[in-house]
Design goal:
Blueprint (H helix, E strand, L loop, with lengths): L10 E8 L5 E8 L5 E7 L3 E3 L5 E3 L2 H11 L7 H17 L4 E3 H15 L1 H11 L5 H15 L1
Helix pairs in contact: 1-2, 1-4, 2-3, 3-4, 4-5
The protein binds zinc ion.
């Protein structure tokens, strides 16, 4: 980490703080040559391993757009979708892994979506879990009824 004032490459960390959401670390650094101080922010990267084998950075907006499709025509507000996206991201990040599989992202969506709207949940689950016949739907509905009881 070069000093932004004199480009010296030797700096020392004088203070380290983790942000409230736990996603980033702020470090206060001091240059050993000019003694000026500056702050750096490091954020942890969460990667998603796709079924195709590709790896891409986790993108909360993709979670939201996927869920939005399942929510068409349902009384769900944009804030609800945002809150859901945040919950999913926090859930995944709280596992402390650098990489998760795309199925795990889908699974992390199911629970908060069920709480939000059961119809949207059924739509999402049917696509995500590859429902193939009525029995699959019936099982999911039975499970929902059990959880509601
Ligand atoms: Zn310096």
């Amino acid at each position: 980490m070069h000093c932004p004032f004199c480009q010296n490459s030797d700096t020392k960390v004088v203070d380290t703080r983790i942000s409230d959401d736990g996603h980033s670390i702020r470090r206060r650094r001091e240059c050993t040559r000019c003694s000026k101080r500056f702050t750096t922010v490091e954020s942890t990267m969460l990667l998603v391993l796709k079924n195709s084998g590709n790896v891409e950075p986790f993108d909360r907006s993709k979670v939201i757009s996927g869920v939005r499709k399942a929510c068409q025509g349902r009384p769900i507000k944009e804030e609800d979708l945002k809150a859901l996206g945040q919950r999913v991201e926090e859930d995944l990040r709280s596992r402390g892994l650098a990489q998760v599989r795309s199925e795990e992202v889908g699974r992390a969506i199911l629970e908060p979506l069920r709480e939000l709207d059961v119809v949207a949940y059924m739509r999402f689950a049917s696509v995500y879990q590859n429902f193939e016949n009525l029995d699959d739907f019936q099982r999911a509905i039975d499970m929902l009824k059990q959880q509601a009881a």
